[in-house]
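quick one, 181 residues, struct below
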Amino acid sequence: MDLSSAIEAKSDQKNADDFLAGPKTFQIERVEVRGGQDQPVWIHLVGEQGKPWKPSKSMTRVLVQAWGPDGDTYAGRFVTLFRDPEIKWAGEAVGGISVAALSHIDKTFSMKLTVSRGKRKAITVQKLEAPAQTDWLAAAETVTDMDSLRDLYMDAQAAGASPDVLKTIQGHTGRIEGINH
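---
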């Protein structure tokens, strides 16, 4: 039994404590910049409705180094995040979220980031092969029983399939009822 969900922080954003059970890979839904805030970059992750990742300035620099400055191009790409216990706030190691791997890069790369005045730390970002995308509609065509259709719907929903795709999957109910009668 996986207890990971039981230890996730209650918050309106991703927190380092959400990664106590280990790294997680997400697909990026969209990026927005909200000026005038401490954390102006909000990266919305597929399946994490209402809980964006708000990268630190250092992690935003990593993303810009890897993918360029146009956040609109990030949608559909994948990022693996992890809890880095060495990240400091107010001079104390409290832990924070760091990038472990990114899709859509040619190769693994390293860069140095400022960690305090006059001190830099090298980080390495691994190349992440983007997971194969499931063709939910094609899968729905092959389902022949209601339990399998329900499971497919739940999987598609958890993976962040669009409302149109979910509605189309639901529409296969009549076809399956016809097969089973």
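The longest helix spans residues 146-158.
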